[in-house]
Hints:
The chain is built from one helix and 25 strands. The chain is an all-beta fold. It folds into two domains: 7-183, Sandwich (Immunoglobulin-like), CATH 2.60.40; 187-315, Immunoglobulin-like (Sandwich), CATH 2.60.40. The longest helix has 5 residues, at 72-76. It starts with 6 loop residues before the first strand and ends with a strand. The relative contact order is 0.17.
Amino acid sequence: MVLGASEASAANLTAATTQSPTIGKVAAASGSATTNFPLSDSGTLGTPSGGGSKVSGTPKQAIITITCVKNTNCQSKPVTITITATGGSGRGAGTNLSSFTSTASPTSGTVTGTSTLVLPSGIGPKSTTTNSAVAVDVGATFPVLGDTASSATTGSWTFTISASDTFGDSSTPLTVTGTATVEHGLSVTATTLSFGTIASSAGGGAVTYPAGTGTLTVPADTKALGSHSLGSVSVTGEAGQVISMTVTATTMVDQSSTGVSVTLTPSISPGGSQLIPGTAGSAGTKTFAVGGNFTLPAHTVPGTYKGTYSATALYN
């Protein structure tokens, strides 16, 4: 969501919004943690920290036009641009933008800064009949509250920007608003995948337990004894959104300290991209079955073999 242009002015310097900043659509952390989304002054959204994730949309940095109105003072002498965070609302309630970065390219060459940016040679070229202007690109870190801290579907944050020269002229502080569309974070819970008891054989062979069928198959001279059960992974997130689920291979190790192990290759069902059911704007849950296969070595050492599989869900 990008707001329309706004403007503030005074004396010989003015500041106007050319482009309002946004981090696009993001997912919050599923708990109370705040996720920090770093937006660079070139419009690149970096890797977030705190449990949330990027989802979609085009991030944009703020672009502010600073104009020197037909005055050689601000056109040739140092101009200082000051950025100040002023608050947030929705998923940004009680927070402030931080870690500002800024870049401008006046006629004297590109300069960079943080919340203070100094144009050492002003905003040229010098002219008492023509305005001169420079575009200032601004990035910042956006703090997005977690699901248990806020249920808002959007977040907004404000900062002011102003310019001043060494002769006492300054622009009226311009308020700029940055935004985000926020989805529920993804939380994952899992249950145990159990192959039950398998009577070892001299020959060994493949043990398969596909998630799609739930049918346990063992080598011809081997027997499956007792009960067995597929595992499950439940993903809670934004209803109506599409997710992808992956489950990684794991090593099942004999718990009697023999050091013997077998490698489990897991499978999930349904596979591919899946829609989280429920009403848009609310939380929904999608459940996947987890199976797998491994090779039973010949003359496998008797014991209890255990391992931990890892399940990861991401918004598409």
